[in-house]
Amino acid sequence: MLIKKVQFATTNHFHTFFRCLSAVIQKRVPDNGIEATELELVNPQNDTPMKKSPLEKCTEDLSEISPYFMPTFNFAAYVNKSETLQELLKLGVNLYKLEKKVTVVPLILKLDFEKNVKPLVTFLHEFGVPINEIGHFITKNPFIFKEDLENMEARINYLFSKKFTKEMILRIVTLNPFWLNFSIERIDKRLGFFQQNYTLKGNEVRTLATISPKLITYNLRQIKANTFAIKEEMGFDEDEVKSLLLSTPKIFMKDQNGVLKTFEFIHKTMGISHDMILKVPEILTFREFRIKERHTYLETLGKAQYNPREPNYVALVSLAGGSDADFCDKVAKTSVHSFNIFLKTL
C-alpha cells in the first residue's frame, strides 16, 4: 500500500483536492478487487493524519474552480470601460492589428486620452493630416505616443529649414508615419547619405524624400546591398544607378536576390537591354517567376516580341503587371483557362 503525505494550507483546500481526486479515481480505477491506495491527508488545523477512502463520491460544487490561463493580449476586455480605447476606435484605429504587437498593448492601455491621445491628434490635424487618416497613422505607428510633441515639432521645422514645402512634409509624414520617430540628427545623416552616395542635388534629395519617404528611413544595409547588385552584378553605371533611384526607389528596398533574378531573366533570357530597362525600370520590381511564366506562354504562341520598333510589340509593363485575366485578354489574346492549363505543364 502506497502512503503519501500531503500538506494543505486550509481545510477548504483539503476538501477540494480530496473531492476532485476521488472523482477521478472512480472513473479510472477498475472494480477488479484491487485494494485502493490510501492517502494520508493532514488536517490543517491540528496536523493530525486523516484517512479517507479515495472512492468516496464527490458531491461538492466545484464550479468555482477553474484552470489557470496565461494573460491574453487583446483589448476586448477593456473597450467598454476605457474612454481612450473608445476614442481610438472613433478615430479609425485598428485595435486588432495593434494586438498582434505584444509590446504595443500595454503601451496603449496606459494612455490617457486627454493627456496623451488628444494632444497628438490635435498636433497632426493642425499641421494638415486629415482627421480620417489619423487612425491609419496611429495603427501603423503606435510608438508615436512615446515621442514628445516638442521634438516632433522640431523635426518638422528642420525640414522647413531644408527648404521642404509644407505639402512635401505633409506627404512625407502621411506616407511614412515613422518619420517623426527619427531624431533630427538621424534624418540629417540619412539625407546626407543619399546626397553623397548618389551625387544628388538639393532639389533631387527633396524629391526623393517626398516620392519615397520610406526609403529615407529604410534599412541602410539593404539599400547598400541592392546598390552593389545593381552596379556591380547587373552592370549599370553610376548615372544609371542614380536614374533608377530617382525614378523607381522601390527597387532599392526589394530583396537583393529577387531583384537580381528578375534582371538576369529579362536581360539574359528575354534579351532586354540596359537601355530598355532604364525606360521601364519598374520591371525590376516584379517577381522573376511571374515574368517567366508569362514570357514562356507568349513564346508558345509566337508573341514574345519586345522590340517597340517591330510589329506586335509587347510592353514590359503589360507583360508583368495586371492580373492574369488582363494579361490573357490584352496581351496573349487567349482565355485564362488556356493559360492555366499551360502553367500545369511547367
From TrEMBL:
Family under the similarity heading? Belongs to the mTERF family.
Q: Which GO terms describe its biological process?
A: mitochondrial ribosome assembly; mitochondrial transcription; regulation of DNA-templated transcription
Q: Which domain of life is it from?
A: Eukaryota
Organism of derivation: Agrilus planipennis (Emerald ash borer)
Q: What is this protein called?
A: Transcription termination factor 3, mitochondrial
The UniProt entry's GO CC annotations, sorted and at most eight, read: mitochondrion
Keyword Transit peptide attributed: yes
Q: Encoded by which gene?
A: LOC108740667
One annotated GO molecular function: nucleic acid binding
Instruction: Quote the InterPro entries the UniProt record gives.
Output: MTERF (IPR003690), MTERF_sf (IPR038538)
Q: Name one Pfam family in it.
A: mTERF
The compartments listed are:
Mitochondrion
**Swiss-Prot/TrEMBL keywords:** Mitochondrion, Transcription, Transcription regulation, Transit peptide
